[in-house]
Design a protein that fits this description.
- The chain is an alpha/beta fold and about 900 residues long.
Length: about 900
């Protein structure tokens, strides 16, 4: 590498190239200076001898110019012709008042010029008045043809628009179902063919001349419409009226006549316009030539006896002097050449020196960088390049050295981390091998280890001729424990359950945890099936005692499903499936049960699986619907509110009620999606009622404790209200008293909803053990009496007394009351004595689709009037206000 003194600055590529370019510029400047000093230009002017001057031909005297007045008059005529042509073209384009006035004025001016010029026949364009008269006549013909075409164009458009308007009015009166117009095919065909005619005639109506193919397509479209009118004359006359059909036929005939006239008039107008423009152009050219000849003198006469180079010229005078150009050299050529060569050699040496120095300053550092990079890539540490070279590469070398030092530090840290990671991998591999066969929470065998243990137990049972029992179990309502007390507490409960199961199976088998709250017990080497059944009963009884977790006593129960080898299945997978099916049967029996596998359970499981798959597809295919059951306000003979009830429109058309599939949906984890759909659909229907003529509409929606546990539930329902433009007073949220088990968080959510104006109703009141507590703790606005309490209200004095006490209690707490399950006249008669209670039941109305609610509301007064009159005389309500209100509404005399 070329070394530099430490004190000298390092030059980069740019300064070095600048020095080279300066040297080249110096060479070019020196060469230019030498060239300028070596050549002089001498211009010599020589006067011709007198004899040659006399021999020059004498130019002929030009004729006198035309009068300036004549030139001015020609210009005026040119201006009048040009203006007239412009106004004619504007008048052909449109028959407006301004265009007509401009055309008349230009015509008058041009005619005045014609009259004035006819008296002066000595002008250069003496015959132009006759040409101008023909020009005026051609303009008049062109304007007439254009007006006729314009009228035909207007008639064409008017007839076509008249047909289109009649068809549109007929289609507007057609039925519209789901956004599709249901109308006669003949009307739709007429409209399509008319649109095709108007599209293909756009060029014709805009003034163009259609070629043969375009005109054939237009006539083909007209023929199709004519054929349609002929074919569908009877049906159209019958559906739209004879006068309608005759008007359409007459307008279509007008369209055809206008098209035929436009076809001929377009060609005539185009031809006439071409001739008019050609006449105007010729006339303007003649006037232009006349003006030029009037302003320019004539060429001098030529003498045929003289040669061509001696002919006189009006534009060239005889030359009296001659000119000669000579160059002289200020310095001798050899001297200039030596100076140029010296400068060139010096400049080239400077360029070569700079180039060599630059190349060495680039190549050598680059080679060192390449070698250092290869060593670094090969894994060598502590690689350094060292400084040197041009400025840019010196900076690169410094950066490389810094990178190498940092990489060395990182490499050392990487080696240390790698050693730590390898040590951790070894430790965690041991743990994973343990976890691969063991549940991390309870230290019981997991699902994988269970399979191998069960296969070993079956092999031993085959050899010994013994029975093996497989028990599937889970904790009843374990989710409520997690939701109310937290998952950490729930994990401690699972550990206690695992300990109790190990105590129960000690010495006769083993326990495994499959996940969640599901456990599997395997009873080995049983002597009889009876022994296995007895163990299953002891297993469910083992959890009748409470479990103590964190100084808190928890009462739980389990559901158990059992399968037996070899009675039910012969392999491990079959026994596990059979026990799982039996577990579902135990839950259906009411939980805290033992169910032993039977072949019928397989069919039940298949049906449940089919139902679950259908529910998943129902969400995708939008097969869910909402039905609305009214709650009747007897005092006002009106609908107080409607309760939204979920229905499933199955592929076969049957409408399934919620009780038929909600349990399966809950087990399949589909309830969050279904609840979200119900909430959104109910709010949208309520918004349509609220904005569509029922501003007092109120919709009751059932919500689950799980929804209230979602911290975003309140925000979501408020967002839906805002999107639907619906006030909160139109929505009432129904819940069961099981919400008390979910803790204070759900009660706080209910209070937040009530503060926004939502109604809160307690459903199925009178069936639980904490009903009075729920009235005190929950922020309620309504209580719904359960149908089991209402069922005996007309036959049981105790039920009647309890119902009356609850109604009086709710009245004292300022709570509204709704009675569910009104199915008999006797029940209706009992509640008719207390008109403040809303009534709901099949006697009054079953759940109905959205479209039937408003019609039912309109006829409700008549139905209530008939029901009240059908009651026995002693059972009729003493206050006649209810009957009078129903009669007034039935007669339509109650003011709104």
């Amino acid at each position: 590498m070329l070394k530099q003194a430490p004190g000298l600055p390092r030059l980069g590529i740019v300064p070095r190239m600048a020095i080279s370019f300066a040297a080249v510029a110096l060479l070019a400047g020196t060469a230019n200076m030498i060239a300028r000093e070596s050549v002089h230009i001498i211009r010599t002017v020589t006067r011709l001898p007198e004899r040659q001057i006399l021999e020059q031909p004498i130019a002929a005297k030009p004729p006198p110019p035309v009068s300036r007045i004549a030139v001015s008059k020609i210009a005026e005529v040119q201006s009048a012709v040009e203006r007239f042509g412009q106004t004619v073209r504007s008048r052909v384009g449109g028959d407006t008042a301004a265009n007509s006035a401009d055309y008349s004025e230009a015509k008058r001016v041009l005619q005045l010029e014609v009259l004035a010029r006819k008296q002066n026949l000595t002008e250069p364009t003496a015959d132009w008045p006759q040409r101008v008269s023909g020009y005026l006549e051609r303009a008049q013909e062109l304007i007439a043809l254009a007006d006729q075409r314009r009228h035909a164009r207007a008639a064409y458009g008017a007839h076509a628009k008249s047909i289109a308007d009649r068809i549109s009015r007929s289609l507007d009166g057609a039925w519209t179902i789901f956004g599709r117009v249901i109308a006669r095919k003949s009307l739709l065909r007429l409209r399509a063919e008319l649109d095709l005619i108007r599209h293909r005639s756009e060029g014709l109506t805009s003034g163009e001349t259609l070629d043969g193919e375009q005109m054939a397509l237009l006539k083909q479209a007209e023929g199709s419409l004519a054929e349609t009118l002929k074919t569908d004359q009877g049906s159209l006359s019958k559906s739209e009226g004879v006068e309608w059909f005759q008007s359409v036929a007459a307008d279509f005939a007008g369209v055809v006549r206008a098209r035929e006239f436009l076809e001929s008039s377009n060609a005539g107008v185009n031809s006439s316009e071409h001739q008019f423009l050609e006449l105007g152009s010729n006339l303007e050219n003649e006037l232009e030539r006349a003006a030029i000849s009037a302003e320019s003198p004539s060429e001098p006469p030529r003498d045929s006896r003289l040669p061509a180079h001696l002919q006189p010229s009006s534009s060239q005078a005889p030359a009296l002097v001659s000119e000669r150009v000579e160059t002289t050299s200020g310095r001798s050529d050899p001297e200039a050449a030596r100076l140029m060569a010296t400068v060139t050699v010096i400049v080239m040496l400077v360029i070569i020196a700079i180039s060599v120095f630059t190349v060495r300053s680039i190549v050598l550092p680059v080679r060192k960088l390449i070698n250092a990079t290869r060593r670094l890539a090969g894994g060598e540490a502590n690689v350094r390049v060292g400084r040197g070279g041009i400025k840019e590469l010196d900076i690169v070398a410094q950066s490389f050295d810094q990178m190498s030092a940092q990489l060395e530090t990182v490499t050392d840290a990487y080696r240390s981390q790698k050693e730590n990671l390898e040590r951790q991998v070894i430790e965690r591999t041991d743990k994973l091998q343990q976890l691969a066969h063991q549940d991390p929470l309870t230290s019981l065998p997991n699902r994988r280890h269970l399979s191998s243990l069960l296969r070993g137990a079956l092999d031993r049972a085959r050899t010994a001729g013994r029975f093996v029992g497989v028990y599937f179990l889970d904790i009843d309502n374990f989710k409520n424990i997690n939701d109310s007390l937290g998952h950490v507490f729930g994990d401690r409960v699972l550990m206690k359950v695992a300990n109790r199961l190990e105590e129960a199976i000690d010495g006769v088998g083993f326990v495994a945890r499959l996940g969640g709250d599901e456990f599997t017990l395997v009873y080995e080497a049983a002597r009889s099936v009876q022994e296995l059944n007895e163990f299953g009963l002891r297993l469910t009884s083992a959890f009748h005692k409470v479990i103590c977790v964190d100084d808190r006593e928890i009462s739980i129960s389990i559901s158990v499903g059992a399968s037996i080898f070899p009675e039910h299945e012969a392999d491990a997978d079959g026994l596990l499936r059979a026990a799982d099916s039996a577990l579902f049967r135990a839950k259906e029996l009411g939980r805290n049960q033992l169910a032993v596998f039977t072949p019928e359970l397989i069919a039940t499981a298949a049906t449940r699986f089919t139902l679950e798959q259908g529910l998943r597809l129902a969400l995708e295919r939008s097969e869910f619907e909402l039905a609305y059951q009214p709650e009747i306000n007897l005092a006002r003979s009106d609908v107080g509110l409607v309760e939204a009830l979920l229905r499933w429109r199955q592929p076969d058309g049957r409408l399934a009620r919620a009780g038929e599939f909600l349990a399966v949906a809950e087990q399949a984890g589909l309830m969050p999606e279904i609840n979200a759909w119900v909430l959104q659909a109910a709010l949208e229907d309520a918004s349509r009622w609220y904005h569509g003529g029922w501003p007092d509409a109120r919709v009751a929606i059932n919500i689950s404790p799980r929804q209230l546990l979602d911290r975003l539930f309140v925000e979501e329902i408020l967002r839906l209200l805002k999107r639907c433009r619906l006030p909160a007073k139109c929505i009432e949220l129904e819940l069961t008293e099981s919400v008390l088990q979910t803790g204070p968080a759900t009660i706080a959510a209910l209070r937040a909803l009530q503060s926004h104006g939502f109604g809160i109703a307690l459903d199925d009141f009178g069936t639980g053990y904490s009903s009075l507590t729920s009235l005190e703790q929950l922020p309620l606005s309504r209580v719904k009496l359960d149908r089991s309490l209402v069922a005996g209200i007309d036959s049981s004095a105790r039920a009647s007394a309890i119902a009356r006490a609850i109604i009086d209690l709710c009245a004292g707490l300022y709570l509204d009351v709704t009675a569910e399950g009104i199915e008999r006249l006797a029940q209706f008669a009992w509640f008719a004595q207390n008109s403040s209670v809303l009534l709901q039941g099949f006697l009054l109305s079953d759940a109905m689709p959205f479209a039937d609610v408003l019609p039912f509301k309109a006829t409700l007064a008549h139905k209530l009037h008939d029901l009240l009159l059908s009651l026995p005389q002693p059972a009729r309500p003493r206050p006649v206000g209810i009957v009078r209100e129903a009669k007034r509404k039935a007669a339509g005399t109650v003011p709104k």
